[in-house]
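Ligand: 2-acetamido-2-deoxy-beta-D-glucopyranose. Inputs:
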Amino acid sequence: MLAAALFAVLFALGASAGPDPCVAIAGKKWVSPREARACMFSFPVDPELKANIIQVVNNTLPFHTSVNYQILAPPPFQNDVHEDIAADLARIFQMSYDSDFEFHLDLYRSFRRLNDGHCTVFNFCYDSLYISYLPTPLVLLTASDGSQSVHIAPEAFSVASAEFPDQIEFWQDSLPGNLKGKLASLSGAKVLQINGKDPLIAVNENAVTTGSYQSFGTRQNSFFSSYSRGAKGWAYIMGNFALQIHPLNDFVELTIQRIDNSLPETLSIPYRSRFGSAAKNFTDGESYRENNCVSVAGTNGYDVYDLASVSEHTHAMPPVAYFQQQPLISNQDRRRPINVMLDGTPLSDVELPEESHPTTAALNESYSVAQFYLLPDNITGVLALGSFSAGNFSVFMASLLDGLQELKALGATHLIVDVTNNGGGYICIAHWLHRILIGPKATTEPQAGLDTCTRASTMAQLIVEKINKGADPKELLSYHPSQWKNSSNVPYSVETHWLRPTVDLTINGHQDAFSPRLGAECQPFEMAPPDHGLFAPENIAILSNGRCGSSCSLFSITMSKHEGVKTVVLGGHKDIPQQYCGVVGGQSTHFAEIDTEIKSTHLKTHILAPPDL
Ligand SMILES: *[C@@H]1O[C@H](CO)[C@@H](O)[C@H](O)[C@H]1NC(C)=O
Ligand SMILES: *[C@@H]1O[C@H](CO)[C@@H](O)[C@H](O)[C@H]1NC(C)=O
Ligand SMILES: *[C@@H]1O[C@H](CO)[C@@H](O)[C@H](O)[C@H]1NC(C)=O
Ligand SMILES: *[C@@H]1O[C@H](CO)[C@@H](O)[C@H](O)[C@H]1NC(C)=O
Ligand SMILES: *[C@@H]1O[C@H](CO)[C@@H](O)[C@H](O)[C@H]1NC(C)=O
Ligand SMILES: *[C@@H]1O[C@H](CO)[C@@H](O)[C@H](O)[C@H]1NC(C)=O
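Predicted complex:
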């Protein structure tokens, strides 16, 4: 398993000129996709900013572990991952674009084709600035004879009317003929065609572009609606059909067969674009860019030994947090090893309708993203775990132990861990849950996880050299030797160059270098784990829709491969293998954090250092 780097890239202010379509949408919560597009496409490319973004991305990539592997992934993912991102950057650098948004879309889509939730580029200027919705999320249903068909979700109207009370009339009025005002009657309808074609064609087209997961089946599943357990409650995931992060589609044409109707009907439903929940108000094109497109505290890194920069940065929520698929965590806890997916869609703020909530009450030991239930058979416990991060690390850790112990006290002998749409989080919570479920044994002590290594690029090696010579006396940096242990689980001393001797490899024809194998990251834990496993491995099942990534896949894979725990993927197309593994990796990071390492070790002027955005 390899430590991965990821980038959230935001960028600096550019001037705009000419007629201003942004004025028409300023201050409106809902607009048509066409209006939003007109504004977003109105900014010309600023050659200097374009070069700056490409240089930042290009010089940050050597910190990401997988780029050479992604040129052609080893089986079974060779058909899914075959993108040479360095070649993409060279192409994009040469290319001229009619607008800055077009440049961004090319960059964004190139990274999405890596199908890697850790190697991505996001830009606050465009991504989720206007999110486009349909009131008709879709589901893939399987009949008792095994046949599958796409349907408008039975709960569609209940979700849309609760979440979009200020738009539902618009959609009601947009329906043709005798369907006008009868949006509710579409819920549950069988979808025969999407834009005149078999629905599976639209599902697969989305799977090719949506990114984040290597597995094709998992990317297919992103088209459909689903649920997740958030910090504050149950969230509804609209799916990529009914929620798009760019306002690029105006409407969809559906041929459907409504419940209790024998005849197919064809209708078109308009997308509506809602101003993003993290977007900043504007009055015209210039203020749009000033408020949404400039770098802010946290976009770039800072020198942790420079008091003025420290005070500016420690209280700011880093912009990347908006795209991390985990609840907001405290700045204090941000220093813990984290492995989390990033996505252009912020963690959904659409609520799961009441009728879809669990019907039994959660145990009192539940906390935030971790909810415990005892099923009516009185022997099966359920841990619904929406993330491996929660607001307070220590409280979260304790609640996992308390909740599982309470389930046992109530008589549970079997456990289902539901990690549907769990995008990862704290690596040491994944190790902790594994360790307390299974108990002490060779696969859980001193590490209930996987050995790892990290990429040892020239810049990374220089950072460690500087630290060896005393550049980080307070041990604040991620590259400090004291943050790591060798494969015998002995911490490195400050003078050890822990990336050396490098393991030199040729990957897809490219020279590459990695650190030696690294050991445990998490133990000893800050609270004592019990002496015995809480559940027998054969009585545990890990359940998801395949969308379990980063620390979540670290947990699922080790539980399955080391402990023989069952994994179950619900949903998915029956002809496509369903994977439970998501995107693994070790610690994941992003441009600002890497820049902090570089600035704090005074390497910013090095030719390989990424400039500031
Ligand atoms: C942005 O505009 C909306 C709608 O006009 C308003 O409700 C909101 O308070 C404004 N937000 C800020 C931060 O000014
Ligand atoms: C990216 O960096 C490499 C190594 O410094 C360099 O050879 C290449 O030309 C750069 N690519 C772009 C598009 O700037
Ligand atoms: C759970 O908490 C509620 C509210 O504080 C309390 O009424 C109830 O007795 C508690 N249940 C148990 C089993 O302790
Ligand atoms: C489960 O426990 C409850 C409360 O003790 C009891 O009413 C119920 O009958 C039990 N169910 C089964 C299947 O044993
Ligand atoms: C987490 O909660 C504990 C116990 O309530 C508290 O002492 C600690 O300061 C909290 N940590 C954070 C980061 O809020
Ligand atoms: C780890 O470090 C210890 C202490 O320096 C050393 O004895 C041990 O051989 C090292 N293990 C490996 C695999 O290098």
